[in-house]
Amino acid sequence: MSHATITQVLHVPKMKNSFISVSKLISESFKVEFDKDGCKVNHVQGVVVAEARRDKNLYLLNVKVREDTTHIVNFLEERLGHFNMASLKELDAMVDGMNLKEVPLHHICEACVKGKHQRTSFPKDGTMKASQLLEIVHTDVCGPMRITSHSGAGYFLTFIDDFSRKTHVYLFKAKGETFEKFKQ
């Protein structure tokens, strides 16, 4: 008998028995065959991955449930300020009710990876500095803002001349007005 993994299932750890949905098995491309004595669950290639014996009107399937702990680790990592996995494992030994023993030490948190990236800083020698008015103009659109202005504007557009540092700010109500403000 081979083994198989079924994902996206509901699991109730304190329940004495587990139930499995035949329609879930079929939607995961398994084939389920019933007879008067029990049933067999076959993988796509016809390999038997599970057998169940019939007990009155129930088919009892002997399966090993492995809980996915990734969401628990992500939650703890966010709440505890992105601890490293070794520290979380130490915490697991100190706290009743936590079970992170099966979580790999190499769990990857996207926020931690991004936070450790180094960026190349902007050049400090001024090679990007404009030498005359309107040679380089920096612009940005911001919005929608949660709180609008007294006139109802929820967006603003900025233009900053790199040479003079003169700044123009335009307020507007809809993002579609950006190009009209740009033409002004």
Quickly describe the structure.
With 184 residues, this protein is α+β, with helices and mostly antiparallel strands. The protein has helices spanning 22-27, 70-79, 85-94, 110-116, 178-183, and strands spanning 31-34, 38-42, 48-55, 58-61, 137-142, 155-161, 167-172.
What descriptors fit this protein?
elongated; 3 domains; 5 helices; three-stranded antiparallel sheet; four-stranded antiparallel sheet; 184 residues; alpha+beta; single chain
Structure overview:
There is one protein chain. The chain has 184 residues and is α+β, with helices and mostly antiparallel strands. It folds into three domains: 1-67, no CATH class; 70-109, no CATH class; 137-183, no CATH class. 21% of the residues lie in helices and 22% in strands. It is built from five helices and seven strands, in the order αββββαααβββα. Strands 1-2-3-4 form a four-stranded antiparallel sheet. A three-stranded antiparallel sheet has the order 5-6-7. Strand 1 and strand 2 form a beta hairpin. The mean pLDDT is 79.
Name the overall outline: elongated
The parts where pLDDT drops under 50 for at least 5 residues are none
The proportion of residues in beta strands is 15-25%
| Count of discrete structural domains | 3
Number of strands: 7
Strand order of the largest sheet: 1-2-3-4
Q: What class would the helix/strand composition place it in?
A: alpha+beta
Specify the number of helices. Answer: 5
Proportion of residues in helical segments? 10-25%
Q: First CA to last CA: what distance?
A: 74 Å
